[in-house]
């Protein structure tokens, strides 16, 4: 470690270990200085003269519940006649004694009220935080028609309570690990004690502990710090905003990671199939769910391969097409000056532009995108002989299909892979396209997420629900996912 | 971190065997048999499989008896280091020759049918670099990849069978012995090493979750492959008939070329090409990996993946020596197979004898 870092940590430690003194004035002066009392407009330092002594309260007025403060802290202190310990006077649910200034500061930062009493070398922390957050709302990004509608919100206690509501069991463990320095933020792991694989759990904990960065404020950032392959195209954790989905995973032996300030949670370890599934697949009846999966599977294949196949076949294998279709394509391309690969790339990039603009644009301007996209890029480009109508159809098809992807994380994977395949197809037709597909699949089957093969349970295969392209009838799903190696395999 | 060690199981082994042996139904091997056996090409493989069955079963018996070994380790254990090295090298060399000639055939096929204007070497380089890149990822990836792509290939095979069946004429199977019963017998025996992969695959005996998975896999895969090969060859016979069949080099492609699906889809061979190309890639990925594995096992090279590039490259260079596809198929491949065959028929018995000798010495 560098010498200046050592000095820094020593100074911090010294400050944190400072004892609380019996002299009330000393304590108050110290904390008021530390918290820039007077400059920080919401930092309050109030003294209360009760019948039994002199008390002092320190808190941020913006983070505590003022009603609780007056009803459950100030009133009891003013009313109590006998000299009994503070934690017996106050009626707030959580009150803990503190010994040193480090704990006092931590409590203040978390939004608690710190209470000192004259002549007592001890303080108390009353947890009556009231951080503002959104109410529980409908899931925006993972919509379902059939099934629960609520989604996570940017508050840790609310999110945990949604888990507790769904899995009311003593085996549901909600564990905190601190991450970062300025300030340390808790990362919460949620798992079922009697199911989770300890090796995986330990691995994830270790990864979180090994993070050396000043701060991580939400799971979206955390995800990138604990991933095994940060630069890979394939995500190794599932990002979901639905508590019902998350608790389904947890009750199968997966681990959920949540943080304050995130309206979503991460699920680890994960396989590629989970990105393909939607929670609604379990709520719908067997045939309906599998039909919807079939449509989605087709969409995936179209979005990945249709443009690339068009490039390969028209450029290199025109003799292999039915003659009528070939003539149709040729006549539509008659006046187009661009080579096919370039034409496709042009339209694909245009489509990506529309999509990117659509995400970023302020909603009142939204309809503009539709007009620009549909009219200028589609109609006008064809009329100007820049692209052929068939290419517009193909790109629209592949673009539309990419929206059918159930999960936002895998959506990017598909979009980028599509460009790789188009490039491959333009090199050597089907030979290089199939080679690229092979390399792509080989990569997918070779990677793993926290020790779990990305392609299981298809291969390598273990006892599991075998929930891959299609799912079984729920009654026949006998085993928990065996690739996680859970403590209890049997669902019955 | 790995949650499960050696995750591959029976299904991956079945897929591997199917890919490396079964898909000889779609390459140039039938043309090799058709040269002399005429429309009895479907009997040739049956004879070959029957001939190979005895040495194969002996080898499997030995592997089962000495639980801990793979093919090369078993050889070393039974006949000592020196003789083991020589036998191992012979196996490697014959596998290597077969790899080279087969690969040239497939590349020529791709070149001739789909890229007639390209130089062979360009296609060859693309082909082999993809094989090497994927093989480099290791056995588990190869096994999983094979299983993952199996649906595409099986679908292709079924589609080809159904489509071809409509153009097949049952009576064309006669004369049943084609060029003559003795010719068929001779062809089947002397070219039985066209399916030598059966005897090279035991190098992976220890690479599965349990050795049982390997055994089950190779038996199931082997039977499936036999059925596939024989039915495909019979189908070719029924499509092309006596005297035409020995003039066609690429029976699989030709058979998909001449069938139509209604009036619109007159040219459906592209659809069948996808599965065929996948399977060709996979076959040589597996084959190349196994050959390097054998070489690595002989000289105790732990990280033999590094050998893929040199061995693949040398194999490519050597296989480009024959001036044309015809020379390669009908002279080089045929001759080399006839030379290799005795080795593969004899060596398991040699090992068996050594095991017998060892047991007797012990007691």
What do you see in this structure?
The complex is a heterodimer of chains A (492) and B (363). Helix content of chain A is 48%, strand content 12%. Chain A has 492 residues and is an alpha+beta fold. Chain A has three domains: 124 residues, no CATH class; 115 residues, no CATH class; 168 residues, no CATH class. In chain A, strand 4 and strand 5 form a beta hairpin. In chain A, helix 14 packs antiparallel against helix 15 and helix 14 crosses helix 17. Chain A starts with a helix and ends in a 39-residue tail after the last strand. Helix content of chain B is 72%, strand content 0%. By secondary structure, chain B is mainly alpha-helical. The model of chain B has no long low-confidence stretch (mean pLDDT 89). Chain B has 14 helices and no strands. Chain B has a single domain, classed as Amino acid/polyamine transporter I (Up-down Bundle). At the A-B interface, helix 7, helix 17 and strand 12 of A face helix 6, helix 7 and helix 12 of B. Chain B: Keywords: Germination, Membrane, Transmembrane, Transmembrane helix, Transport. Chain B: It holds the Pfam family Spore_permease.
Fold topology:
The complex is a heterodimer of chains A (492) and B (363).
Chain A: H1 3-16, H2 24-34, E1 43-50, E2 53-60, H3 66-79, H4 86-89, E3 95-98, H5 101-109, E4 113-117, E5 123-126, H6 156-166, E6 172-179, E7 185-192, H7 198-209, H8 219-226, E8 238-240, H9 243-250, E9 255-259, E10 265-268, H10 272-276, H11 280-283, H12 286-316, H13 323-332, H14 340-360, H15 366-383, H16 389-403, H17 408-446, E11 448-449, E12 452-453
Antiparallel strand pairs in A: 1-2, 2-4, 3-5, 4-5, 6-7, 7-9, 8-10, 9-10, 11-12
Helix pairs in contact in A: 6-9, 12-16, 12-17, 14-15, 14-16, 14-17
Chain B: H1 10-20, H2 29-37, H3 43-65, H4 71-79, H5 81-114, H6 120-135, H7 139-167, H8 181-190, H9 197-200, H10 211-240, H11 251-257, H12 269-298, H13 308-319, H14 325-362
Helix pairs in contact in B: 1-7, 1-10, 3-8, 3-10, 3-14, 4-5, 4-14, 5-6, 5-12, 5-13, 5-14, 6-12, 6-13, 7-10, 7-12
Membrane topology (chain A): Multi-pass membrane protein
Family (chain A): Belongs to the GerABKA family.
Main location (chain A): membrane
């Amino acid at each position: 470690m560098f010498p200046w870092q050592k000095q820094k940590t020593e100074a911090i430690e010294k400050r944190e270990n400072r004892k609380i003194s019996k002299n009330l004035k000393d304590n108050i002066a110290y904390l008021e200085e530390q918290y820039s009392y007077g400059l920080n407009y919401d930092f309050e330092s109030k003294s209360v003269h009760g019948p039994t002594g002199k008390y002092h309260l320190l808190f941020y007025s913006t983070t505590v519940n003022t009603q609780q403060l007056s009803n459950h802290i100030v009133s009891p202190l003013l009313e109590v006649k006998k000299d009994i310990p503070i934690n017996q006077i106050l009626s707030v649910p959580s009150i803990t004694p503190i010994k040193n200034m480090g704990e006092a500061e931590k409590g203040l930062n978390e939004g608690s009220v710190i209470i000192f009493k004259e002549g007592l070398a001890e303080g108390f922390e009353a947890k009556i935080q009231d951080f503002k957050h959104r109410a529980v709302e409908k899931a925006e990004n993972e919509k379902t028609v059939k099934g629960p509608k609520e989604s996570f919100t940017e508050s840790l206690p609310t999110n945990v309570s949604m888990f507790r509501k769904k899995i009311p069991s003593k085996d549901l463990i909600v564990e905190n690990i601190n991450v970062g320095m300025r300030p340390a933020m808790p990362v919460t792991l949620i798992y079922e004690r009697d199911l989770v694989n300890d090796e995986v759990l330990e691995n994830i904990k270790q990864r979180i502990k090994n993070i050396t960065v000043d701060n991580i404020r939400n799971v979206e950032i955390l995800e990138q710090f604990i991933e095994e392959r940060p630069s890979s195209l394939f995500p190794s954790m599932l990002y979901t905003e639905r508590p019902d989905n998350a608790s389904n995973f947890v009750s199968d032996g997966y681990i959920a990671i949540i943080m304050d300030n995130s309206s979503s949670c991460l699920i680890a370890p994960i396989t590629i199939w989970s990105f393909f599934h939607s929670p609604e697949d379990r709520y719908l009846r067997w045939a309906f769910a599998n039909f919807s999966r079939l449509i989605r599977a087709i969409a995936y294949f179209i979005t990945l391969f249709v443009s690339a196949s068009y490039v390969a076949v028209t450029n290199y294998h025109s003799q292999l097409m039915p003659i009528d279709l070939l003539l149709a394509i040729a006549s539509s391309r008659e006046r187009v000056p661009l080579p096919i690969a370039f034409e496709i790339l042009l339209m694909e990039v245009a489509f990506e532009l529309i999509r990117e603009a659509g995400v970023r644009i302020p909603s009142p301007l939204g309809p503009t995108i539709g007009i620009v996209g549909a009219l200028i890029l589609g109609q006008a480009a064809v009329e100007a002989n820049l692209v052929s109508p068939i290419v517009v159809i193909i790109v629209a098809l592949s673009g539309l299909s990419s929206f059918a992807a159930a999960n936002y994380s895998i959506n990017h994977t598909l979009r980028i892979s599509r460009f790789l395949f188009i490039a491959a197809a333009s090199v050597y037709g089907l030979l290089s396209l199939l080679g690229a597909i092979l390399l792509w699949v080989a990569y997918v089957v070779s990677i793993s997420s926290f020790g779990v093969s990305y392609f299981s349970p298809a291969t390598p295969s273990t006892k599991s629900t075998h929930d891959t392209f299609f799912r079984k009838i729920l009654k026949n799903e006998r085993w928990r996912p065996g690739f996680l190696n859970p403590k209890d395999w049997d669902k019955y | 971190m790995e949650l499960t060690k050696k995750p591959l199981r029976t299904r991956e082994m079945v897929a591997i065997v199917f890919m490396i042996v079964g898909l000889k139904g779609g390459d140039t091997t039938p043309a090799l048999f058709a040269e002399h056996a005429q429309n009895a090409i479907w009997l040739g493989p049956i004879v070959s499989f029957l001939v190979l069955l005895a040495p194969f079963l002996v080898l499997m018996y030995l592997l089962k008896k000495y639980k801990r070994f793979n093919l090369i380790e078993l050889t070393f254990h039974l006949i000592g280091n020196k003789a083991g090295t020589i036998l191992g090298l012979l196996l490697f060399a014959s596998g290597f020759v077969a790899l080279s000639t087969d690969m040239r055939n497939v590349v020529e096929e791709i070149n001739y049918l789909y890229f007639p204007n390209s130089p062979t070497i360009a296609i060859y380089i693309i082909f082999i670099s993809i094989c090497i890149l994927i093989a480099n990822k290791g056995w588990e990836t190869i096994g999983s990849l094979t299983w993952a792509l199996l649906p595409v290939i099986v679908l292709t095979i079924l589609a080809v069978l159904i489509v071809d069946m409509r153009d097949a004429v049952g009576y064309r199977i006669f004369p049943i012995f084609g060029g003559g019963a003795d010719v068929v017998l001779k062809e089947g025996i002397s070219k039985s090493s066209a399916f030598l992969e059966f005897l090279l695959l035991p190098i992976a005996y220890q690479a599965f979750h349990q050795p049982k998975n390997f055994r089950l896999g190779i038996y199931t895969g082997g039977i499936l492959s036999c059925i596939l090969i024989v039915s495909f060859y019979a189908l070719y016979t029924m499509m092309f008939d006596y005297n035409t069949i020995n003039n066609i080099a690429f029976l699989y492609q030709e058979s998909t070329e001449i069938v139509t699906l209604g009036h619109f889809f007159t040219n459906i061979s592209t659809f069948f090409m996808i599965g065929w190309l996948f399977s060709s890639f996979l076959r040589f990925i597996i084959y190349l990996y196994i050959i390097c594995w054998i070489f690595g096992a002989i000289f105790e090279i732990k990280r033999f993946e590094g050998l893929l590039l040199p061995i693949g490259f040398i194999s490519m260079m050597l296989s480009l020596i024959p001036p044309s596809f015809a020379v390669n198929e009908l002279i080089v491949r045929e001759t080399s197979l006839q030379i290799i065959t005795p080795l593969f028929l004899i060596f398991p018995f040699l090992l068996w004898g050594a095991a017998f000798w060892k047991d007797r010495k012990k007691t």
